[in-house]
Amino acid sequence: MTADIRVSEIFGPTIQGEGALIGLPTVFVRTGGCDYRCSWCDSLHAVDSEFRHDWRPMSAADVLAEVDDLAGGIPLTISLSGGNPAIQPLGPLIDLGHERGYRFALETQGSIAKDWFGRLDALVLSPKPPSSGMDPDWEAFSSCLSLAADRPQTVIKMVVFDDADYAFARGVANRFPAYPIFLQPGNHTPPPPTEEEAVVDIDGVMDRMHWLVGKVTEDRWFEARVLPQLHVLLWGNKRGV
Ligand code: SF4
């Protein structure tokens, strides 16, 4: 008997909109609950306990059955996100999915380390910069890297809104030089708590993207990769795409 996974939403297939797997077809499994509360969180429906009544307790088999339905039975990459998916008991889902040919990518801020990280195919660690109002726990972050070891493709992705965030990102890159670094201009507009389409300040996001590219090239920081959130450019902050 395995513990249930608290699921906020399952949707797709769509494409992964950010980071190392950008453009890759995927189904998202978004879990409910987060140990952080970032000032600019764009997934409050999976964070705020006000939305707890929407979160479903599901077994690994039930999650996979729903993904199977969406994907037409053809195994693809499942993106585990949240909230903080590291809170949830995802090991059995990963094992069951692997038996059926699925691959698993997980994104977390790196505040909670789990031994099953080493069974993932891709791990995106996204430490939160000063603009989030959060204070990363570097011991926990390092544990995440240790538990992942060399099994999943592991990258570090950071959202950058301003100079302080940029300096933070440079510090993280210096501290963990073995990992590919992805930088992403921040997206300020929070989504509405309903299914209505969110209005995103695309001009603001693109201005920040231009500024960030300028910073990286001026500094000759040639190891960093700078990418916008493709799904935000395509759909704004609309849920379920
Ligand atoms: Fe939102 Fe992610 Fe911050 Fe949690 S860690 S509050 S999901 S941005």
Task: Tell me what the structure shows.
The protein is α/β, with parallel strands linked by helices and 241 residues long. The chain contains 6 helices and 9 strands. The chain has a 9-stranded mixed sheet with strand order 3-1-2-4-5-6-7-8-9. Strand 6, helix 3 and strand 7 form a beta-alpha-beta unit. Helix 1 packs across helix 2. It starts with a strand and ends in a 6-residue tail after the last helix. Iron/sulfur cluster binds next to loops.
SSE map:
Elements: E1 5-15, E2 25-31, E3 56-58, H1 60-71, E4 77-81, H2 91-99, E5 103-108, E6 122-125, H3 138-148, E7 153-160, H4 163-175, E8 181-185, H5 202-218, E9 224-226, H6 230-235
Parallel strand pairs: 2-4, 4-5, 5-6, 6-7, 7-8, 8-9
Antiparallel strand pairs: 1-2, 1-3
Helix pairs in contact: 1-2
The structure holds iron/sulfur cluster.
Iron/sulfur cluster (SF4) is lined by residues 34, 36-38, 41, 43, 47, 82-84, 109, 128.
- Biggest sheet overview: 9 strands, mixed
Number of helices: 6
Estimate the mean pLDDT confidence.
92
Tell me the number of strands.
Answer: 9
Small-molecule components bound:
iron/sulfur cluster
CATH superfamily: Aldolase class I
CA-based gyration radius: 17 Å
Can you name the CATH architecture?
A: Alpha-Beta Barrel
Strand order of the largest sheet: 3-1-2-4-5-6-7-8-9
The proportion of strand residues reads 15-25%
Q: Tell me the structural class.
A: alpha/beta
Secondary-structure element series: EEEHEHEEHEHEHEH
